[in-house]
Amino acid sequence: xxxxxxxxxxxxxxxxxxxxxxxxxxxxxxxxxxxxxxxxxxxxxxxxxxxxxxxxxxxxxxxxxxxxxxxxxxxxxxxxxxxxxxxxxxxxxxxxxxxxxxxxxxxxxxxxxxxxxxxxxxxxxxxxxxxxxxxxxxxxxxxxxxxxxxxxxxxxxxxxxxxxxxxxxxxxxxxxxxxxxxxxxxxxxxxxxxxxxxxxxxxxxxxxxxxxxxxxxxxxxxxxxxxxxxxxxxxxxxxxxxxxxxxxxxxxxxxxxxxxxxxxxxxxxxxxxxxxxxxxxxxxxxxxxxxxxxxxxx
Length: 298
What we know:
The chain is of the alpha/beta class. 34% of the residues lie in helices and 17% in strands.
């Protein structure tokens, strides 16, 4: 059972390069959905109060439209909401963002096809977050080979890192061999892929391999699974629900606890726009699953 003291620190910590973060973090995609900016700002501040010092974001997290394809009213960028809520930023706060893709209200999503476009995406993140240097930048890959070879894209980011605009680099939506392909260009501090208790379990070996190499593994959609942007299904699965009943917690908390149990290098970044769900998610940092629970979930 989670303890009465709810804190992200209960999940333990991991280092992203030279930055230490609590393994229970926060994903900012869903905070853009509600037209009430003040609700998002209050939720972000509450997350930090509960010990979150690792926030995942992207300049293409925006509503209306954007990744969620919802919303009305003026554009609400997650990066700008983070800035409004938390700047001047706490010294221990690590903000990880993504480039490789961008979003235009007229043309929609587009992948960077030139070094200049990739640099522009980095600069957009700097501007919207109000920072001189980005803590972590994940190069997000598409499903195809992309207009530029992977090594060239990562090399552009490595140059920006050398110039002082980026502190650390990671990869998102990648295969193991792609991590090897860029390892000699610059250190990879994290891998961010879609992964969960009942989603993409073929990555189990990749998760372990990242731990052996000291690379953080950061699953996205750990709660939504294959539902992705649409969110989690109302049916959580018999095994998840049975373990939840046994511990007196929610199925979502079991999913997050399972994520954290996959290794000390695995970080959780659950996202929500609901303050009650935020509290439940962070409470999962102290939920301990038994070996029997883990066997049942596997």
